[in-house]
Amino acid sequence: MGSLNGQNNHSSLPATHDCLLERITALLSRWHGLQMAVQNQWGGHDSFQKSQQLAADVFSWFIHSKAPQIEDLENLLHERMLLSLNTEIEDGSIEEVAEQLMIMHEEYLHGNR
Q1: Which of 71, 52, 72 is nearest to 61 (CA)?
Q2: Taking CA 42 as the corner, what is the angle to CA 38 and CA 47, rounded to the nearest 5 degrees?
Q3: Cβ atoms within 10 Å, residue 103
Q4: In this structure, are residues 104 and 24 in contact, taking their beta carbons and an 8 Å threshold?
Q5: Which family does it belong to (predicted)?
Q6: How many C-beta neighbours within 10 Å does residue 64 have?
Q7: Cys staple from 112: which of 8, 24, 44, 107, with CB 3.0 to 4.6 Å?
Q8: How confident is the model at residue 111 (pLDDT cuts 50, 70, 90)?
Q9: What 3-state DSSP class applies to 89?
Q10: Structure confidence at residue 13 as a pLDDT band (50, 70, 90)
Q11: What local confidence, expressed as pLDDT, does residue 17 receive?
């Protein structure tokens, strides 16, 4: 099974931002529902690239959100999984992943990088 932890060239990002993106990518790479979609190519032959785009979308959402709300993050994850990867997640993992991402972002904001 492919991992989302491929080498990324984000040299234009500040080091702290790059660290956040790497942590988001690592967390998503452990999400069973996403990995099943990638492994089975439910989103097509470019499912792996779509999973990497999901990590970039979550990162961008955090960077540009003034006051991120978990419900909005859950909606983002659900929408991207459904529209990009043709995957309906109904096992409660979207909520779990969103909660972990919110905690990660809070730690990032408070300097626990």
Answers
A1: 72
A2: 45
A3: 11
A4: yes
A5: Belongs to the TSR2 family.
A6: 8
A7: 107
A8: confident
A9: coil
A10: low
A11: 79
Residue given tokens 């992943």 in the structure block:
97
Structure tokens at 85: 């990867």
Alpha-helical (H) ranges within 15-109 are 15-29, 32-39, 47-64, 70-85, 93-109
Residue 4, Cβ density class (10 Å: 0-12 exposed, 13-18 middle, ≥19 buried): buried
Residue with tokens 């990518």: 25
Residue 11 clears pLDDT 70, i.e. is over it: no
